[in-house]
Structures are given as C-alpha cells and as structure tokens.
Specification:
Number of helices: 9
Structural class: alpha+beta
Low-confidence stretches: 4-37
Number of strands: 19
Distance between the termini: 49 Å
Order of helices and strands: EHHEEEEHEEHEHHEEHEEEEEEEHHEE
Radius of gyration: 25 Å
Amino acid sequence: MPQLTDQGATDQGATDQGATDQGATARAATARDGTGAHEGDGTWMTPQEYGASRAVVWSAAVVLVTDTDGRILVQSVDYRADRLLPGGAVDAGEAPSAAAARELREELGVDGRYPRGLAVDWIPADTPGFPPEMRFPGEILHVYDGGTWTPERIDAVRLPAQEITGIHFAEPAELPALMEPGDARRALSALRARINGCGTALLEDGRPTTPTALDRLGVLRTRRIPEREPWHPGPVPAQLSVRDRSAWLFAPDGRVLLLIARATGAAHLPPPTAAAVTAAAPLGYRYGGQGAHARTAARLTALPPAADPAYARLLATPEQVRELSDWGPAGGHELAAVHTARLRLGLPAAPRTPATELPEAGARW
C-alpha cells in the first residue's frame, strides 16, 4: 500500500480535494439575498448537501533525499516489509510542508525545512493493498525535495525507539524491488522532476500527467553504468591503453549532447564522432588499471540524422549528465573540468531546464 498509511494515519488527516475557489460556490449559494438562496434557484444546494457532494481524500507528505552518489534514502519500518521514503500522514489542520518537516524530525531526528515540491500524486481509492475495513478513500501525496545529504549529515541521523528500524541509500533502479509499485513509480517520477528542474510534477498513481523526455524514455529504470575510476586532466598518456572514447559536445546555449538507450534508459556521453564539431581538445580521462575512459570537449556545429534507432539524443546541462551517471567522488572533478572547457569555448552556463529530445532528422547550430 502507498506511503501514507503509516501507523499514525487516521481519518483526521482527510482533506477536501477541491480548490479554495470552488468552495466559494457553496458560500455564494447561501448569500444571494443576504439570508440564503431559495429552492428552485437552479443549482442551489444547502451547505450540508454541498459538503456531502465533495470528494474527501487522505493527505500525506514525504521527502526525497539523495546522497552525494545520487542514491535515494529509503527507510525500513516495523509495520510492513517494503521500504518507504521518510514522511507520513498530514495531521488535521497541518500544512503538507510542515508535516514533511515534522515527520523527518520524528523519524530521523533531523531538523529542516522542505519548501520545494517535486511532485503531487493522486492515489486512487481502489489501489491494491488496503484492507477493506480501512475504507481507504484515496490520497493526495506531496513529495518534497530534501536535497543531497553529506556523509556528516547522514551520520547525524538518530532513529526513534520504535517504528523506524533502519535506513539505507538505494540506487534508483533498485526501488521497484524495495517498494510497493506505486511508491517506486512516485519516487522515480519525483527524482526525474528534480533532475529536470521543471517544477512540481503532477502525478496520477505515480505516473506524470505530462511526461517529460526523461519520463518517456524511462531514465533511471535500470542501474546506472558505474564509471568510478579517478579523474585525470589532460590527454591520455601514450603508455596507457584507451578503453573507450566519449565527448562533451556543447550546443551554443551551454548544454551538451547526451544519448539515452531506449531499451534500458541508460545515459551515455556520445562518442567524439557523433556530430560535426569545432575546437575539439582533450579534456581528461578516467583510469583504474583496465584501460582509460578518454574524454574530449568540443563545440557542436551540426548533428546528422539519427543512424541508430536504439538511442535517443537529448540536450542536457552538464549537471544533469552527472546526476544521471554513477561517477563516484571524482564526478565533481570531471564536472569542474567540463565548465573550464565551456569557458574556453566562450559558451554560457546553461540554466537547469528539462532535458530536450532532438529530432531524428538532426540539427544545425
């Protein structure tokens, strides 16, 4: 069953699903002549009738936290077998963001504020897993951004004496095996929304109502390709063998070309030959004893028509590329080298916007 049904969830956490401006309909219905509307006035209803006509759902708030390797914090609890994001039911009269802060304080001993929403999910009343006697009416669940926690902050976590039995950080692709299906869909959708920087995603049963390119391609549904060797600036020394070559290829707006495998959702930097470029230069390499992963940097001038239907071609910021990759601590060093190359090419720093899929017909700059 979804996250919301922790031990403290009760009908007191129920909220009216309608927007505030719709509530004005009921107020207006009893205020037309100063004493109340009259029977026969068309859509007139008594306040009791109007209130009874509105849908009622539960409300909850959870927080998505990652570590510096891009793994997601999930917790084990003593009342169910699957893992959960930290969070729980919104109390009566409580704002969802306040509930998120309260739950993390109660569950993990961590104080904080989480004002940035990543997703709002509608969970239908017929979702499997709820016992009939619970009379689950459906749920509106808010996912907030808890940010990236350093090892020091993770070490500061203090679990309560009961309910939360442990935490660990899971690779995004592991979530479907650890969580209820709807919880896993919601967490991955929220993570993609965070990476995209596109604002709060609207979900229905964990699925975006307006999928982005990362959603459509199922990015992060399989294990990110580990490439955690140390980073070395400059060209590959002659005495080292080259295992593969890839490139940071910059568009004029400062974004770079990224390949997504359609079959797996895995993200790859393209080979240097993927497009027409200028000012190509060695950037650096990763080396761990089994051949070097060589990187170059260049400015894109043209992208040929797609030759391999197995890959989608996107433009993304360098930061988004790193977040979709498993590069370990050296990822920060590589990212710094990428921005040095961008400045050398006279290109701007790209603001975080949703990754954009390029047309199969190609493009020119």
